Amino acid sequence: MSPASALLDVRDLVVRYGSFVAVDHVSFDLAAGETLALVGPSGCGKSSTAAAVLQLHRPDGGEVWFDGRELTALDERALRPLRPAMQPVFQDPYGSLSPRCRIRDAVAEPLRVQGRWDRMAGPARVAELLDLVGLDPAYGDRRPHELSGGQCQRAGIARALAGDPRLLVLDEPVSALDPSLRAGVLNLLADLQERLGLGYLFICHDMAVVRHFSDRVVEMRDGRIVDER
Amino acid sequence: MHPADPLLSVRDLRIAIGPVDAVRGLSFDVRDGEVLAIVGESGAGKSLTARALLGMLPRGATAAGSARLRGETELVGARRQVYAGLWGRRIALVPQDALSALSPVHAVGDQLAAAVRSVRRVSRKEARARAVAALEQVGIADAGRRARAYPHEFSGGMRQRAVIAMAMINEPELVVADEPTTALDPGTQRHVLELLARRREETGASLVLVTHDLAAVEEHADRMLVMYAGRAVESGPVDEVFARPRAPYTAGLLASLPPDLSPALPSAEPLPGRARGGPVAGRRLPSIAGAPPTLAELLPGCAFAPRCPLARRAEPAEPAEPAEPAEPAELADDDRCRTELPEPQRLGDGEREVACHRWSELPDRPAELFLENV
Ligand SMILES: Nc1ncnc2c1ncn2[C@@H]1O[C@H](COP(=O)(O)OP(=O)(O)OP(=O)(O)O)[C@@H](O)[C@H]1O
Ligand code: SF4
Ligand SMILES: [Mg+2]
């Protein structure tokens, strides 16, 4: 069993691409309401770690426990209903939303997956989520390429929040936003964390943002954790 | 053509997309050999402006106004053949998404060589040699072998270097880079920007750099143009704008930076009531209250008015008793933010421009205006 207090417990995680070891026995945990920053140079394994935590890329070794369940022991079918509770927010504003899908359908998707879509209340919930990230709900009709980079990135955040997540894996989530919106979205994330006890695994290169936003910092190099503070 | 004409002169540029006026009267110059940064609000029309200059607007968008290259070549409304003669040799784009700039089905070196031959009558062999040299110039090791690789075989950073090589290979006069590093791995961003700046210097081109990275602006740009809701709110030399923003929106933008981002930025001063890290409650950053405007529903007056702390301060206080109506003239003056579009005006020697009715009322430490939602 995973320690009761940890929302996320990662033990001896290993990710290999062919003979290249991208993540080499990485272990850390994350409590509800906590922000853990993952930092390190380009190619050090941060994003591979994030993908393996979310089971977007199945790890080659180790265990990932989320909310008391061992994700690494579940098959795709068993994982599916859990996915909305652990959501990624990616750096690439256009790459993270399906290009053909209207914004409101993309935001509604986690609700549909959970079987929580309600034809009456659903659209209002989507509008509320868009509003929360500072996007006029009218943008819901558009497709990603009809939005600016920053508008697209905010739609991605709205989508991640739709399924009432417990864990967000934030991979450079504000890179495409202007500094004021960036501050606004970081403030929003801090509010939600305070109110709902979300856990954040935060991948970011901007040390000023990391220092400001994180409780603990884990530094990776060549696939390993080299420092924790 | 006149020798005094700036390289690029944009006047009253307007871009409509469907029913929305996304760019609403934008004017700026790009001088020879300078780096002009365009910064500002997400959705302000920076990318549409960049694309309009390259004749690459999305479907359904129309541009009006003028953008002249060296006073003679009109870019707005130019026909495709005109652009085809300009692309690469006079103006070039470095887009955010490198994959969109490279063909997936041709080797990178072949694409570069084809670009050379589209402009110069040189042998295949020579074009090939130039392509390899161009990859070397952007720091791609083992360029001879790499030239035979396809874009998908490159890492993100290498691909963006290749796009820069492509943009620079025919030594254009003007390079427009739209967030050239946003999609890149963090560690690579700085290198790619430095490379872009170095290649610009070596070729003597002018660079328009659209970015949200104010540290990069400080490091690489000579002048900056700040946009909000399809208009310029402020422009001027980078160090002057950072040291003393004149438009309330610019002040809010600088105040929103996390502390200790850069010692030269005014926001690096410790601000009252602002803890660093620690408990969540101390983690709020100053930001501009309210949401960006929806362009379809812009009210008359300044687009920033609903969020502007100066406009709020200027609002006539609720009269305690409905007796004395205010002087009509005074009322009109107080309401200007809501009724009259502020036009850019020159300050001092003309290096700075600001479009704000109340710029002179901005306090010395304007960041304090944005602390209320910390
Ligand atoms: N293809 C399109 N169809 C409809 N609207 C569009 C399209 N492209 C852009 N827009 C709208 O035009 C406005 C300006 O967009 P633009 O991409 O120029 O913004 P930007 O300043 O580059 O923002 P960001 O900093 O977020 O990239 C936005 O409101 C956007 O939603
Ligand atoms: S014109 Fe008025 S509303 Fe606009 S920025 Fe200036 S003070 Fe604020
Ligand atoms: Mg853009």
From TrEMBL, chain A:
It comes from the Bacteria. GO terms for molecular function: ATP binding; ATP hydrolysis activity. Residues 8-229 form the ABC transporter domain. PROSITE patterns: ABC_TRANSPORTER_1, ABC_TRANSPORTER_2. Keywords: ATP-binding, Nucleotide-binding, Transport. SMART domains: AAA. It holds the Pfam family ABC_tran. Gene3D superfamilies: P-loop containing nucleotide triphosphate hydrolases. The keyword Nucleotide-binding applies. GO terms for biological process: transmembrane transport. InterPro entries: AAA+_ATPase (IPR003593), ABC_transp_ATP-bind (IPR050319), ABC_transporter-like_ATP-bd (IPR003439), ABC_transporter-like_CS (IPR017871), P-loop_NTPase (IPR027417). Belongs to the ABC transporter superfamily. This is ABC transporter ATP-binding protein. It comes from Streptomyces himalayensis subsp. himalayensis.
TrEMBL record, chain B:
Residues 264-274 have a biased composition (Low complexity). Residues 334-353 have a biased composition (Basic and acidic residues). NCBIfam families: oligo_HPY. The keyword Nucleotide-binding applies. CDD domains: ABC_NikE_OppD_transporters. It is found in: Cell membrane. Gene3D superfamilies: P-loop containing nucleotide triphosphate hydrolases (3.40.50.300). Keywords: ATP-binding, Cell membrane, Membrane, Nucleotide-binding, Transport. The keyword Transmembrane does not apply. Residues 264-284, 315-353 are annotated as: Disordered. It comes from the Bacteria. This is ABC transporter ATP-binding protein. Pfam families: ABC_tran (PF00005), oligo_HPY (PF08352). One of its GO terms (molecular function) is ATP binding. SMART domains: AAA (SM00382). Belongs to the ABC transporter superfamily. It is a peripheral membrane protein. Residues 8-254 form the ABC transporter domain. GO terms for biological process: peptide transport. One of its GO terms (cellular component) is plasma membrane.
